[in-house]
């Protein structure tokens, strides 16, 4: 079985092999490098990362508990398929958690923070123009993490990242089908709302960002899937 390529991640000298295995496999799921339904093996993952099976098993155990990898019989692994009901649940959770996180971060939004977020948004424009989907996904996550992380007491990011992790493989497929869908740039709407210190407009832009683009494409894909007709 040919294993799909896992994007490399930075590896510091202090990073253990278990941390590296988990981080690299988690990143591959998060950015959608592994498609829904992709079959994996412990041996194939170990060979690709140049590691023994032990750290791979631990990484898979953690990702299985996060519903990002399914452990099947006979040491078989699979990236979970998406269903319409699960997709809608995850989308609604994204909206609830991310608008909550934005509201809690709102008092700490400064002009300096807005300028940094605008810089990330500009890099997203470049990635989109170059059809760099891995880069676009990472930058999008960086934008939202920076915004929500302005709250010094934030506790929502682990929950939000769990949702991103479960949506990643399917949303990447949806992004690849976005050519026929025209969407507004809701990140610029978010920046405008932040500059105007308008919390309702910021939350509305976040909700529109979640619903637009890849979510609309995802719903179309699920509706057209043979098992859901």
TrEMBL record:
InterPro entries: GntR_C (IPR011711), TF_FadR/GntR_C (IPR008920), Tscrpt_reg_HTH_GntR (IPR000524), WH-like_DNA-bd_sf (IPR036388), WH_DNA-bd_sf (IPR036390). Gene3D superfamilies: GntR ligand-binding domain-like (1.20.120.530), Winged helix-like DNA-binding domain superfamily/Winged helix DNA-binding domain (1.10.10.10). SUPFAM superfamilies: GntR ligand-binding domain-like, Winged helix' DNA-binding domain. Keywords: DNA-binding, Transcription, Transcription regulation. Pfam families: FCD, GntR. Residues 15-82 form the HTH gntR-type domain. This is GntR family transcriptional regulator.
């Amino acid at each position: 079985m040919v294993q799909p390529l896992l994007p490399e991640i930075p590896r510091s000298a202090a990073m253990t092999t278990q941390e590296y295995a988990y981080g690299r496999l988690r990143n591959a799921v998060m950015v959608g490098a592994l498609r829904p339904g992709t079959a994996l093996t412990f041996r194939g993952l170990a060979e690709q990362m140049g590691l023994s099976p032990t750290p791979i098993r631990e990484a898979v155990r953690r990702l299985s508990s996060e519903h990002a990898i399914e452990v099947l019989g006979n040491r078989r692994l699979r990236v979970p398929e998406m269903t319409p009901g699960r997709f809608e649940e995850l989308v609604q959770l994204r909206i609830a958690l991310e608008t909550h996180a934005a509201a809690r971060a709102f008092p700490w939004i400064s002009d300096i923070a807005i300028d940094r977020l605008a810089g990330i948004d500009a890099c997203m424009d470049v990635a989109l123009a170059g059809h760099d989907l891995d880069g676009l996904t990472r930058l999008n996550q960086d934008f939202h993490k920076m915004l929500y992380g302005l709250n010094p007491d934030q506790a929502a990011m682990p929950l939000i990242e769990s949702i991103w992790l479960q949506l990643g493989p399917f949303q990447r497929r949806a992004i690849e089908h976005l050519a026929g869908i025209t969407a507004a740039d809701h990140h610029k709407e978010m920046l405008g709302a932040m500059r105007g210190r308008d919390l309702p407009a910021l939350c509305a832009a976040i909700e529109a960002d979640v619903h637009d683009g890849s979510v609309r494409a995802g719903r179309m894909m699920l509706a057209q899937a043979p098992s859901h007709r």
